[in-house]
Amino acid sequence: MELVAQLLDWFTAPAQWTGSSGIPVRVLEHVLYTVAATGVAVVVGLPIGLAVGHTGRGGTVAVNTTNVGRAIPSFGIIVLFFFIFGIDPVPAVIMLVALALPPIVTNTYVGVRSVAPAVTDSAAGMGLTGWQVLREVEIPAAMPLIMAGIRTSAVQVVATATLAAYIGLGGLGRYIFDGLSQQVLNQVVGGAILVALLALATELALGRVQRLVVPRGLQARSRQAALDAKLT
Amino acid sequence: MITFESVTKQFPGGTTAVDELHLQVPDGEVVVLVGPSGCGKTTILRMVNRMIEPSGGRVAVNGEDVMRTSPPRLRRGIGYVIQGIGLFPHRTIAQNVATVPKLEGWDDDRIKARVDELIETVGLPDGVRDRYPHQLSGGQQQRVGVARALAADPPVMLMDEPFAAVDPIVRTRLQDEFLRLQSEVRKTIVFVTHDIDEAIKMGDRIAILSQGGHLQQYATPKELLAEPANDFVADFLGAERGLKRLALIPVSQVEAAPGPVVAPGAGIDEARRVAETHSSDWVVVVDDEGRARGWARLDELDGRGPVDGVRLRDFELTVHADDSLRTALNALVISRHGVAVRLGDGDRYEGLLTRELLSEELR
User: So what's the ipTM on this one?
Assistant: First the structure.
């Protein structure tokens, strides 16, 4: 109970909501890292996933290569980058991009590959060009999986962007690392709660986006599929 | 007209799918390619719209070598229906049907009118327009597939086992409706199936192929069944070749025998005499207006009054002019006396079909 009271104190202190180390600024920094990293990962990963998915060539190579990003410990990279580049947000964002790429590439690739062969065959057979097949058939049909990949990536990035603070950058990680070194428990827990809330908000916001970009005909089905996945 | 001139297809790795094929598909006809798996029938079909390109020879649609037209242009003029149907899952039925017209840049009003027309033509309820493919039954989806292929009114259609994925009852219905539709639209159609019965039913001509894309025989169903070119074809047609031939011949083609006919007022003596000349022990009773009233057994006539004094028996099965001889054979086998009674409109008596008459027809 004492912790709850302390947390309340921490959250309600006026100083907490203003200035360069206030919650709004830290949230903004955190969001910036996340948007930058996820954005770059989408810009890089989506074309890769679409290309290997559409041509059916190089899928394993692409998926395995990007998966390296998942295998390397983020904490290790960020410390390494710190010794090489000093306090610089660019390496931190690159670390986050490496983490964000695998789900996007894999999901996009799998999404495009899993469009029924009969669908792409009939599309080509009716006279759609390769581009048209990709744009009008494969991308819309793969959209539920593509969006699921982006959501997974973004939420992971929100959680991991906390590490940026470890090398002297901003973001919500500041509360956690500073709190730990100064042994201010309520600040550590407060920071962790903010990170969790931001991850949740990200998930919800992207859910909204998903509803906008996934074609209507696939929504009922993807909702059903999500439900089935949860049940099993 | 679609022509294949010494068309060969070798796949990388050296397997020959089609070997020196010569074939002509006349305008407005359904040509069925049939054969066991590995006979190259799908490869042949897919060479028409360049989904597969020949390694040698020439495939031409209306005189134009397909290799000299860009694939998208070529394909928009050729309807394409495949077994998996391949409807776009993210598009409504109307949008699916509108695919090619949209590519061809039709204006919205024209597309809408065409879609409405096609949905009706293929026998779909109006309510499916704005539904999605997964909300339809397999048979309905197949109809959408046909409507989509017909959308821009292409003169040529390619159909690769289009009805294989639906259950037998729905398949029969789709086949019948397709034949009715084809009799109106008269497209030039290449149709692939592995089912010889479907081939016989759907094809104006049938090309029977064997492993490695060798054309064994190319003929009308009747010719094929009457004179299979070799053992392979005979085997492929199956043991019931005679029955399959009968199925193709309408009852109207056979002149029915008059049979032992008496008027309702005829007495026992006349009935006996008529029956005797036809060496039967029964008579058919036909009234002044030519209507068949039923039949009677001689030993049930009571000897004095007219034949309609006894209770006449009904015919269990009767056949009509547009039934097939196979239907007649069925009626004949079931009938106690080995005959099938042919009736016209309003039960008009048209005669009897016997086993001898059917055999004669196959000779």
Answer: 0.82
